[in-house]
Structures are given as C-alpha cells and as structure tokens.
Specification:
Layout lengths: L1 H6 L3 H16 L7 H14 L1 H8 L3 H17 L20 E6 L5 E6 L4 H13 L3
Antiparallel strand pairs: 1-2
Helix pairs in contact: 2-3, 3-4, 3-5, 4-5
Length: about 130
C-alpha cells in the first residue's frame, strides 16, 4: 500500500518518503537528523508545509518553523552587488534612456538622455568611476 501512495506523489516527495521510512526503521536517535530536516524544509517550500508534513509524518509547526528559517537564511546570505559590464550590441545610438551610477560610498549620478551612443555612455561611466572624493 505504501508503494501505491508514493506513486501518486511528485517524485521528490516520494523519494523523501522512502528516506524517512528508511531512517525510521534504522534510527538510533529519536531526533530527526539535520539533512532530513533540510530536505523536508525544501520540499515544504516547494509543495506546501501542510502536504509535506502529512506526507512525511512530521509536525506541521516544526516544519513550518524550519521552512521560515530556511527562507530567512537565504535572505541573509545574499551577496552585495557586484559590477557587471554590459557591452553594447552595436554602435547604433540608443533611444531615450536613464543611466544611473552609484559607487561604494553611495555617491550617485543620474543622467536622462534623449539619444546617446554606447561610446558616450562608456565615457560618462569612466569619468564617474575615476573621480576621487
């Protein structure tokens, strides 16, 4: 009967059911290991806390707390912005645009252009980044 139930589940949930069943049969400690909680939290985020908790026979509130904690960990680990060079596709003039530069100190320069080519925009950027405060 367990195989029949896992066939109707999405494949990742079905694999998780098998992993939890195997752990429950062979466990030596009463606490669920961190890798299994991490797996459950990821599935809870993707398939919903309620469905995942029911399917894996977990406490809804424990799983919900771990899903929320995993979400906050992702936000805290985001890296600060980095410079990305965008090369022009061709030397054709750009239509109206707004260009905004900001350095690490928070100094900003915003320019609204009706028409400018990539060469002009590159020159403006180089001048801005070369300035010393």
């Amino acid at each position: 009967m367990a195989r029949q139930i896992t066939r109707t589940l999405p494949a990742p949930l079905a694999r998780a059911v098998r992993r939890f069943q195997k752990w429950r049969k062979t466990r030596t400690k009463p606490r669920i290991p961190a890798p299994l909680w991490k797996l459950a939290a990821g599935l809870g985020k993707k398939y919903g806390v309620n469905q995942t908790a029911k399917t894996l026979h977990l406490d809804y509130y424990d799983l919900k707390r771990r899903v929320e904690a995993a979400d906050s960990d992702v936000c805290e680990r985001e890296t600060p912005g980095t410079f990305v060079e965008v090369l022009p596709a061709a030397s054709s003039p750009a239509s109206a645009c707004v260009v905004e530069f900001e350095d690490a100190r928070g100094v900003k320069m915003r320019i609204q252009l009706k028409s400018a080519g990539a060469a002009e925009l590159t020159a403006l950027g180089q001048l801005f980044w070369r300035q010393e405060g």
